[in-house]
Amino acid sequence: MFALDGISAADVPLIDDVVYVRDLLELAVRDDLLGPAGGPHELIKDMSVRDRYLVGKLAPRRPDDDQATRVEPASAAEEAGDLEDERTAPLHEPGAEFASASGRVEPEDDALDELDTTNNQSLIPSSMGLTFCVAPDVEKLTVNSRWGRYERVPNDEHGIVKTRKNRQTGHEEEVKVRVWQRIPCGGVASLSLVDGPIKPSIPDRDQPDVRLQGTVRTNNKGERLVTLFLVNGQLEPDDNKDRAWLFQPEIIVEAPEGQSDKSVFRRRPSNEVVVDDPERDRLALIYRDRLEFAVGHGVSVHADTTPEYPTKAHRVRTEIIPRYEVAVTETPGLDPRDRPDMRRMVDEGWLDMTRLAEMEPDALREALACLVDDYAVWIGEQKKRLGTEISGFDDPGKDVIARCEEILRRLREGMNTIFADAETLEAFRFANRSMAMQRVRSIYALKRRRNETVDVIALDVPKNRSWRPFQLAFLLLSIPSLADPAHPDRTKPVEAFADLLWFPTGGGKTEAYLGVAAFAMAMRRLRNDLGGLDASRGLAVIMRYTLRLLTLQQFQRATTLLCAMEVIRRADDTTWGKEPFTLGLWVGNRVTPGTTEASHQAVEAIRNNDRNKSGIASPAQLTSCPWCGSEISGGRDIEVDRIAGRTLIHCGDKLGSCDFSKAKSSNEPHPGLPVKVVDEEIYHRPPTMMIATVDKFAMMAWRPEVRNLFGRVDQECGRHGLLWPSHDCGTGHRARGSYPAATVRPVRAIRPPDLIIQDEFHLISGPLGTMVGLYETAVDELSSWVLGDTKVRPKVVASTATVRRADDQVRNVFMRRISVFPPTGLDVEDNFFSVQRPISEKPGRRYMGVCAPGSSRPAVLIRTYTAFLTAAQALFDRFGPVADPYMTLVGYFNSLRELGGMKRLAEDDVQTRSFRVNMSLVDRPGLSQRRVEEISELTSRVSSQDIPRYLDQLEVPFEGVFDAAQGKWVTNRKPGEARPIDAVLATNMLSVGVDVNRLGVMVVNGQPKGTAEYIQATSRVGRTPPGLVATVLTWARPRDLSHYETFEHYHATFYQHVEAQSVTPFSPRALDRGLTGAMLSIMRHTYDPFAANDGAGAMNSPSRKEMLETIGVVAARTWEVTEDSGKKALSEAEMKSRADEWSNEAGVGGRTLVYQKYGAGPTAYPLLSAPGIKPWTDWTVPMSMREVEPGVRLVMEDDRSTSDPTWRPRVKKPEEDQQ
């Protein structure tokens, strides 16, 4: 099964080491794509060597190449790698092969059936090389060039045969097959460094036409820049052409033997333009030891350094399949070498949420002070390093220290605030208690979903309910502004902090801001009468996302927290109130129902078909109970009360023991799980916390009901809940069946949301971010309230794993200044709250690059997919479930077009090749036959009803038993059990928020357009097991080729390469598209006369007080954000122009001006129009933040297709145009 570096299957022990399995997987794939799979003297049977290996090939010179015209470069000033005269360079000379490709192949052409790479020999390079820099005093280098050549073994010297059918006789007969044997080649040469062209040398005298050549240049520092190429100048023979090809080529350069200082290689000079950018300087500081020593030409490179001298390298070499392992970022405290106080917090249990909730004040202060004081000591240690250990970075170093000291000040303020009064301390305890229950119950529910027998009490131990230090610190940062609404972070525009939680994907950001949310909701219940507003109910926390997949998955996670909070409230409703803690899901009505009637129809559709085949929006957004893991059946466990307007989702626990089952919760104020998924119910009974997509906020301009989410209410119906202008409850309702009579009564206004959380903040960019920033004018205004003489704004928290220029982005979107937490330290490996462990101690996520010049992209993907799938199967056969993380292959694509083409190939070629991988004479050690049956897709084309099911299926592991008769592990699924997914193909929907811990391997199709997307997407694998990511880079795309040639350095510093985001909410184009929507959102939800649909007619004058105040709000925000008087004047002028138009429309007689025609009378005239086929006007208002022009979606319905269409093609007339 395995033959990796001489290891056979019998030599591989039975292990339970997933790291070792990951390493074997990489070796198997590398051997299959590059070779030599059978060792240095392998035999390749019944196949061309060029077909056997995908990468690592240098083509020979074709007979029609003109050798007579070859000349050496005229001077050393020529471009590195362009060693021949550009007018006469033969096709396979250095640097020429890539330029020649542009006229022979279309880089974007999928060429789906082009699998024979030998057909593209003219596009396969004949050379490869590298450029590096050495110290001024280096005179000589040692160059080791090596490769493999394959010679045909004569038929009379081997007895390898195969059986085939004779076409003439029809009988089976044995025939000898072609056999190629590998012969290691190469040699070592001494290279003298003299400026100018390097005289070509012959590494191996047996192949005199294979030569090493290049140039040497000296830069203004005296350092020497050396470019070397290995060139295959052999002539292609008429037969047995593989003899003239070079396989597995490699160039290794180092100092000569006997030289005392081997570290002769220096940082390669950069061509980057120097700009005044403090953030760029801070990044240069923390990545100062991760240097680029060489760059490849048609190949990648690797430099060997030592930990003692990271800024010098002692060896550089080429790499056909480069690899780099990104270190895992983790929180300190568990390693014996961590800071003593960090270990003390773990040992003393001071990170245990349950213990923090129960500690006496003095003990709690000691625990929190341990963290805060140690941070102060760490900052002092970093200060001492500046100017001594670290030099040349004084300004960015001082900037880093200043940011850390600001965080320290706020941490101390947060700790002191906890003990300032009993209410804040109680809210802190509540947050810890509820988060402890959330963590334990999440683990319990997951194990129950996997059919594991588990006891929740056994899981309720400190390791399952402890904060990571940065999570607890982030809670401390947020406490002052949430405990005191009059805090400067809530009352001072622009100067207030918006906290940006920056932590690598998978590090625990969600739990951090859920803890902050729990504190905010608890604090609100304890101080529920400030400013004369009712805070005992209403929406307290808004969590916003950009993608529905992310929204749905986070909804499931947040539900567990609300369940925990509700359990605590039920046990002590005197303290925490009679109003239940609930969670709302406010997303598009293609996902969740907009009305109770729509919810009823969806549930009926589920009951009639046992699933929602109709494709309408569904309330069935939870497939299992987040509290106990029991399955939730949409038809059985969802109850729609059409009279009261409620949709209740019960736990499906058949024993009725779950706190949220129908048996135990039917008498509660909110029976079942504390969730609300229908818009109508969310408006009537606003949840305590709401998860929403940013797009949904575009509906503020269209729906008067949205005002209830911001507490702008004054009436309540005893049966239906809070009302809004133009409601249809009248003065009340008569008794009906079991429903008593209900009246409409006046109520106090409710306090608006206290906390806004924006997850995956890096996605709030470009056109979407611009629209969000403009509409945020309305959200911020509607969420503000008055306490005494002070205007209180909501606290803003954002989170991301990748961001650049976040200060500008936060200012433009939220009109606040940024506070990034945790701030960077002086080293990328340590910022106190997180550390990067050495790879030797803590395996990270390993990246490998695959680039095959001359091969079509589909051909490369097919080979790569097949190699990964069958290698994983071989590992499963040998090691069993320990190989499960690598059995589900994740394919990532930059577009639906590319994904669609690959899905067809995966369902055809990949399936066939995987099954037949060992059905030939070709030895493929490390690969095993596999039936690839489950290929799924995770894209925008997947319906919202199917997404939860797909996510659940991704959690299904490959399990098996050892079959002694077959000598391998085999899968053992019971009848009716879900089959694990073999491959899932995804677009950027996967890149945020998909947290499936078992996934361990991914193939990326081409370098994504943004580094942030690349980091986010690839971080979806390797969360629990060590991950392996193969990036397939297309040689015909210059950007892909550039990434391949600098593969290792890019991955060593890819957080440094994250692109800055652009958000311009008050640009002329943005005002044209979104100003009317933002204006109406403020007008309709702030001023009652304008709220109802016919309130459009209330604009009897452009100088109405309400309009002037709205203009003032928008103009003031424009100035605070842009500090541009021209843009402020533009926004004022645009608003006044709209006021004039609106007033004119309202003054037209004989009609009733309404916002929208739907549901209005015959004389109604609509003011607004939705984007459509009509031209965009000032009164075109989007219904989504992304809406510019309507899209058309084409869906092929198989059940309606026919092989006998009713139409017939018309006969072409002779006189018609023949073109």
UniProtKB/TrEMBL annotation:
Keyword Hydrolase in record: yes
CDD domains reported in the protein's UniProt record: SF2_C (cd18785)
GO molecular-function terms, A-Z: helicase activity
Protein name stated in the entry: Helicase conserved C-terminal domain-containing protein
Swiss-Prot/TrEMBL keywords: ATP-binding, Helicase, Hydrolase, Nucleotide-binding
Alphabetical list of InterPro entries matching this protein: P-loop_NTPase
Stretches the record annotates as Disordered: 58-87, 1194-1219
Gene3D superfamilies: P-loop containing nucleotide triphosphate hydrolases
